[in-house]
Amino acid sequence: xxxxxxxxxxTNETNISLQLDIDGTGVSNIDTGIxxxxxxxxxxxxxxxxxxxxxxxxxxxxxxxxxxEDLGIVLGIAIKEALGSKVGIKRxxxxxxxxxxxxxxxxxxxxxxxxxxxxxxxxxxxxGYLETQTIREFFYAISYSAGMNLHIKLxxxxxxxxxxxxxxxxxxxxxxxxxxxxxxxVDVPSTKGTL
Length: 195
Fold this sequence. Notes:
Helix content is 34%, strand content 31%. By secondary structure, the chain is an alpha+beta fold.
């Protein structure tokens, strides 16, 4: 069963083509027009073992908000559609990720119901050209478009680059666990019979 999905979305603000293979090896080809966002998505791909291709053009002359938020929407849709019926998945995933002085917790439930909890403060307005306020919007958009319960908590940290990178890597590791197949599970992991 292939768990690969290509999603294309065009609005007056952005034009995004994104291909995600849940069962990849961590190969990526990313071009969002925002260098630091490319770096974050490359880390997500590598550490979650997801193959990811992204080509985005957006109204970066305004700011990075629309591009980053729409990337979250499209990635969330790709996750949801690539998983299909969710038969056999572990459903839950969590990871506690250290990166130098930073420590981030990410926990996921692929329950089909969106919920987002985020605790992180940044010291700077930007990391490279990426506004730090948009990082929350990215993960919020993923949570709601994927129908995912997503918790991200910064437990310790000083450097904003480390904080953000640790979030993306922790999310990748938790999502890898939640999407992985449990050979003991022959149906959907829910007493309701559906996710």
